[in-house]
Write a structure and sequence with these properties.
This protein has helices at 62-101, 105-138, 144-171, 175-192, 197-203. It has 208 residues and is an all-alpha fold. The N and C termini lie far apart (84 Å).
């Protein structure tokens, strides 16, 4: 009696193939083959993102926004100062012309000198106002040049603010202290905003 005959009713039943796994379940990997995840298909590796794409800052840090607003406020003060100095130069020039008409040559010379000094101060204030506005506008797209210029500009403004603050404290008048104190606070924020890590990362961000 042969057990190998498939038609023999008394023989050993033939071995059935293992059932196929149901849909949606992971397949059993053969020996020596690493197991696969998912529905029997190997997972594809995730595509790497762009360099620095996940760390790119999309909006300007709050401290830089504050420094930017302060730059625009300072530029407004500088513009008003330039206008005031120009008006003073015009007044001094009128006084000089009147003094010359009445024969006060020394007073006329003093008026001319004062008018020249006022014009120089007006030009300085206008140049500083232009720089303040330029730096504030460049915060959105500027790089290391804007960052370094802002730090130097803020530090110099803080030094002059401290000088005026000490002078105001010597006078003993509160009105002579408030404006220099506000100026020093503005200068400190403008100086520190590009130096802190968030400001440094903003100016070092990639631009496309």
């Amino acid at each position: 009696m042969s057990y190998g005959d498939p038609n023999n009713p008394y023989g050993q039943p033939p071995q059935q193939p293992p059932p196929a796994p149901g849909y949606g379940y992971p397949q059993q990997a053969p020996p020596g083959v690493p197991p696969q995840q998912g529905y029997g298909y190997p997972q594809q590796p995730a595509y790497p993102g762009y360099p620095g794409g996940n760390m790119m800052q999309q909006s300007m840090p709050g401290l830089l926004v504050t420094a930017r607003v302060f730059l625009f406020l300072i530029s407004a003060v500088q513009i008003l100062s330039a206008i005031g100095f120009l008006y003073g130069a015009a007044v001094a020039n009128d006084v000089s012309d009147s003094a010359d008409e009445f024969g006060f040559n020394s007073a006329g010379d003093f008026g001319d000198a004062a008018a020249g000094i006022f014009v120089v101060f007006a030009l300085i204030c206008a140049a500083l106002a232009t720089l303040s506005i330029t730096l504030g506008v460049k915060f959105s797209r500027g790089g290391q040049g804007v960052r370094i210029t802002t730090v130097i500009y803020g530090a110099l403004g803080g030094v002059f603010g401290l000088i005026y603050l000490f002078i105001g404290m010597d006078t003993g008048f509160a009105s002579a202290i408030i404006l220099p104190l506000i100026w020093v606070v503005f200068a400190v924020i403008i100086t520190m905003a590009p130096v802190v890590p968030s400001g440094t990362a903003w100016f070092n961000r990639p631009r496309y």
